[in-house]
Every structure is written in C-alpha cells, then in structure tokens.
Design a protein that fits this description.
Layout (H helix, E strand, L loop, with lengths): L2 H6 L19 H13 L9 E9 L3 E5 L6 E4 L14 E8 L7 E4 H18 L3 E10 L2 E6 L2 E6 L18 E10 L4 E5 L1 H18 L5 E10 L2 E5 L4 E5 L20 E10 L4 E5 L20 E9 L3 E7 L2 E6 L21 E10 L4 E5 L13 H4 L5 E9 L3 E7 L2 E6 L21 E10 L4 E5 L8 H7 L5 E9 L3 E5 L5 E5 L16 E10 L4 E5 H9 L2 H7 L7 H8 L3 H17 L1
Parallel strand pairs: 3-5, 13-15, 18-20, 23-25
Antiparallel strand pairs: 1-2, 1-4, 2-3, 4-5, 6-7, 6-9, 7-8, 9-10, 11-12, 11-14, 12-13, 14-15, 16-17, 16-19, 17-18, 19-20, 21-22, 21-24, 22-23, 24-25, 26-27, 26-29, 27-28, 29-30
Length: about 600
C-alpha cells in the first residue's frame, strides 16, 4: 500500500473493537433496526398446515426444504419417488407437523401435504362441479378404481357411459375425465362419474335430433340393448325402439338372429310421440316388400313349397319365401270334419307342400291347404257301398260332446254316435261315463248322407234290443227282487235282474212294519208300469207285500180274465222253459258287454 493510499483510509476506531462480543458495539436503535430487518426475512409458520417450500439440498436419504422459517426442514427422500427429476430450487407443498422436535429440527411431510391438498381439491371439484383428470388403475366389482390427486375413487359401471359397458378392462391404464358426484369422509370414499360429461354433451345433440325429427326420416344408430321384443338403438343422444316385427320382412324369433350389440344400422322413423319422447323405428321398411317380388304364375290352385315358421291353435304359417307367408287353417289340414290340434299335423321347421286356396296381392294375404293334395274321401265312388246302412266298422274316438261322440273310421271319414245309441240298458248322461278319447269302438251304420258329409252310427245296435224280451219278463204285475241303489227327493233308483234299472216313488218304499226302505236294501218289488219306448220300469214294494196279505179269493177276483192275463200269470208263476233259455242267453250277452 502506498503512502498516499494510507493517508486516504479512515482512521480505525479501536474503541469500538473491544472484547464485549460481536455486535455489542451497536447502539440500541441500530440493533432494533437490524432485528426488524431479520424478522422480516422469516415467515410466520403454524403447525398442522400446508405451506410452500423450496428445495435447498438433496441427499440420498433426505431433501432439505426452506419454508422461510428460522430453520430448514428435512423430508425423507422416499416421499419424492414420484418426482425422479427433483432438483434444487423446485417448490414443493409440505405439511408442517412440528415447528421444532426434541432436536430443534423443523418437521415436514410431503405425503401428508399431498393427502390434505388432494381432499381439498376433491371437495372444490364437487362444490364447483369441475371436470378433473383421473387415471384408471384397475377394475373392481361393479366398476373401476380411478386415481384422482393420488386418492382412489370409485367409478360405478353404470356411470362410465350412457350405453351399457360389457368390458371394463378396456379402460384400465388409461386417462379419463370425471366429475366428483359424492364424498364420504367417514369412509374416505369418493364416487366419480364419466357418464355425466357425456350426457351433457348429448343433451345438445338430443335437443337437435328431437327438433328435427319427422316420420320417414332415415337415421344411423348403434344397437345398445337387445330384448325379446326388439332392440334399442342410440341415435346420438336419444334412443329409439326397433320392434322385432320391424326388423325383417321374414319371421324371426329373436333379434339376435339377424343383429348384434354395438352394430351400426340404418333405420327409418315410423312414429314419434313428442310428449313421451318415444321413437318407433323400422329397418325392414328400407327394403322392398317381398310380396312385390312374388312370382306372377302363383295363382289360386298353384302348388307351393315352404317351411313352417309358426304353429298356432287355429293353424300354421308356411313361409314360401322370406316375408311371404300363407296360413294353413287347421280345417285345411285334414279332410276330417273334426278339428284337431295343428301340432298333430305340423311343427315349426317342417318343409311341406301346399295348395293356394285364396290369394290377395293387394292385402298381401294368402290361405293354403294341404288336405287338397290328397283325394277327398267323401267323393270316392266306393264310399256308398263301404258305409252302407247296416255295415259294421271300428273307429277311434276323437271327441266327446254332451250329445254324443265323434268316431273316426278312417282319415277324413267321421261319424256321430248319439249318446242314446251307446247302450240298451244303461242310462248314460255323458259319453265320458261310457268311453274316453282315443279308445276304439265298434259300431254299425245307421244313416249315410254323402251330400252333407254326415254319418250316423250306433253301438247298441250291434246287439238285439233286450227290451223286446224285458217286455215279457217284467210285465206289469210281476214281482222281482230289487236292490235300492240311490234315492233323491222324489224317486228311488232300483237295480233289477240282468243289470237294468227301475224306479220307485218314495211312498211306494213303505214296508209292512210302517218304516221305509233305505239304500242298500234288497226287497220284493211289483212292476206297476212298463214302457218299452221310454225304456222305463216303475215298481212298488208296498204293493208287493200288500198283495201277499190279501186273501187268495180276493186276489183271484181281482185278477183279469184268464186269456187276457195269461202272460202276466205265467211270468208271476215262473217263465216257461223257452223263456228261461232266452233269458239265459240274454244274461250272457249283457254280462259279456258290461
């Protein structure tokens, strides 16, 4: 240093540089001013809050952060694994756990800061209806787990899209915009939705579509749902129903036969209900009607081939080409006049030939017949001789009615057996008391009317009328042992010999001791009335015992002249040998039939 420079330096004040300590030479005013400047460089830090910190040091184990406090804080390096590019000067949010631990160290946590900040952001997103970015981490039962601000949120399957989602896995590992729809702090549960974002976008499209919608308009849509009765098609924000009958001109049993989910299809608007916002769609209407392509050479009387596509109670539908069907009524399946179940003749899938009976191209209707492929049995020349009156035949019972039964003698030839022609001796109220459907029955032809296709048959006529014999056996005045089998308010029914029935009024059941006979008792009864035409025998027990008590002389006086009463007298005394033989043969016939 030159002498000139030495002269220019101020003289050092050795009085201020004493041994009283560093800074002890400042005046009180100067010291207060310096403390104020120092305090202004420090931030006021409170515990249990999130603050910003600046990275001022990085080691393998810790990261040193300056939050403007009197001392820096240390955070484990493990809390920065998601920030591999962390460097000096980066600003990080941290949570102040403790301003000073036992070692005098400021305790910070980035992990807790992330959690607190995340929940604050989630609550803000819910309050302000914000759209936030999420990351689909994995699939779970009923939906997806989405990471938002490092918090796992649940995205229900029904909230992924406006259309049903069948494969959730396609979203795993991808980013997705969502909205918070529910927060449950008690369970740390957050529910988000992606569907609400789509619905908001679709609302404008829906309004535009509905405003411009009109019948006959052709639209493109995507099949979003499929049912037995049709499919629901997404038209871009609004759904329409494509009924199964409007999918194809041909008959289908389920839409899946021709369509599949997520398929793009063109449809036409058939109807639109503005109040209910219901749209009816059609797909087959975009194609020409198959009836327009029906060959001109198909006329009444033509033979056609096809497949049975439906069988109903009244008939079957034959599809001769896709969309063109004809009805085969059950009456046109067989020449038999007795209508049967169509399923006895045909079933779905059968390929058959039929004859066109009626054809209306304008109304697109056609009736068919299959019996016309065979000869009408009633027109056969040998029919009159085969079923002449008196000829005997066997047939199958096809139907029972109150008045009789219908017997099928051969295909197309039915006859009626009236209930009164089933038995000579039994009073049959309904044919089911005598026989059942499907049983075989032997009959004799009583009447044949070819023109009206009528055949009257009888079963009892196979045997001689036993009432011709009964007329002499049960003559008026004869006495027989009878059993009471039933009683009503006015009459009692009796079982007579040979299995026939007789009747007695209740007053004629009076016994000799003054009581009245009851059901199950077997007593002597006297014939008081016999009607061969009505097959009716009236009897009286009272007159039977009264007659026995009369004196023989009085009985002889009351008797009719010998010639007139010879038959009753014979029956009363006992039948002749010839009568006994006839009765024995009749009894064998009756027992064999019963």
């Amino acid at each position: 240093m030159s002498k000139t420079q030495q002269r220019e330096l101020p003289a050092f004040d050795w009085d201020r540089a004493d041994n009283k300590g560093f800074g002890s030479g400042y005046s009180d005013a100067e010291r207060n001013r310096m403390m104020e400047l120092y305090d202004n460089t420090l931030s006021e830090v409170k515990e249990k809050e999130v603050v910003m910190g600046t990275v001022v040091g990085i080691t393998d184990r810790e990261v040193l952060l300056n939050i403007g406090f009197k001392s820096d804080g240390l955070v484990p390096a493990s809390e920065f694994r998601d920030m591999p590019d962390l460097k000096m000067g980066d600003e990080i949010e941290v949570y102040v756990e403790n301003q000073e631990d036992p070692n005098g160290q400021l305790v910070l946590s980035r992990k807790k800061a992330k959690v607190i900040t995340a929940w604050q952001k989630i609550q803000k997103a819910l309050d302000e209806d914000l759209v936030i970015d999420g990351f689909v981490k994995r699939r779970t039962k009923g939906g997806l787990i989405v990471d938002i601000y490092s918090v796992e949120a649940f995205l229900p399957g029904s909230q992924i899209d406006v259309k049903p989602i069948r494969d959730f896995d396609i979203f795993v590992g991808k980013k997705m915009e969502v909205k918070v729809v529910k927060i449950n702090y008690a369970n740390d549960n957050v529910v988000v939705s992606h569907k609400v974002l789509i619905e908001k976008d679709l609302e404008a499209q829906r309004t535009q579509i509905l405003n411009n919608l009109e019948k006959g308009q052709v639209l493109e849509g995507v099949i979003k749902n499929m049912t037995n009765f049709g499919v629901f098609i997404d038209l871009g924000g609004v759904d329409g129903l494509l009924h199964i009958t409007d999918i194809s001109w041909g008959r289908i049993s389920h839409p899946s036969e021709v369509l599949h989910l997520d398929q793009k299809v063109n449809v036409v608007v058939l109807d639109f209900d503005e109040d209910k916002k219901r749209i009816s769609l059609g797909m087959k209407q975009l194609l020409a009607h198959p009836w327009d392509a029906l060959q001109e050479d198909i006329q009444v009387g033509s033979k056609v081939k096809g497949k049975i596509v439906n069988v109903a109670d009244y008939g079957a539908f034959l599809e001769i080409m896709p969309g063109v069907e004809g009805l085969i009524h059950v009456s046109e399946m067989s020449w038999s006049q007795h209508l049967r179940n169509p399923q006895e003749f045909l079933k779905v899938g059968d390929e058959v030939e039929a004859v066109v009976l009626t054809l209306d191209r304008n109304d697109r209707k056609m009736s068919l017949g299959i019996k016309q492929l065979t000869e009408d049995p009633w027109t056969r020349p040998e029919l009159r001789a085969k079923y002449a009156v008196g000829t005997k035949h066997k047939g199958v019972v096809r139907n029972l009615t109150n008045f009789g039964l219908f017997l099928e003698l051969e295909e197309g030839i039915d006859g009626l057996v009236h209930v009164s022609d089933l038995s000579w001796t039994k009073k049959i109220k309904h044919p089911s008391d005598f026989i059942k459907v499907g049983d075989e029955l032997e009959v004799v032809v009583l009447e044949l009317d070819v023109d009206n296709r009528r055949l009257a048959l009888g079963h009892k006529q196979l045997e001689e009328n036993p009432w011709d014999t009964f007329e002499s056996v049960f003559a008026v005045g004869t006495i027989h042992r009878c059993t009471i089998i039933s009683k009503n308010d006015k009459m009692a029914t009796l079982e007579l010999p040979y299995g026939i029935e007789g009747f007695s009024s209740l007053k004629n059941l009076a016994k000799e001791d003054g009581t009245f006979a009851e059901v199950g008792e077997t007593l002597d009864f006297k014939v008081t009335e016999f009607s061969k035409e009505e097959k009716r025998i009236m009897l009286s027990h009272t007159k039977a015992w009264q007659e026995k008590s009369e004196p023989a002389k009085e009985k002889a006086a009351k008797a009719a002249p010998a010639k007139a009463s010879s038959a009753p007298a014979q029956a009363e005394r006992g039948a002749t040998l010839g009568d006994l033989d006839a009765l024995a043969a009749l009894k064998e016939q009756l027992e064999g039939r019963n």
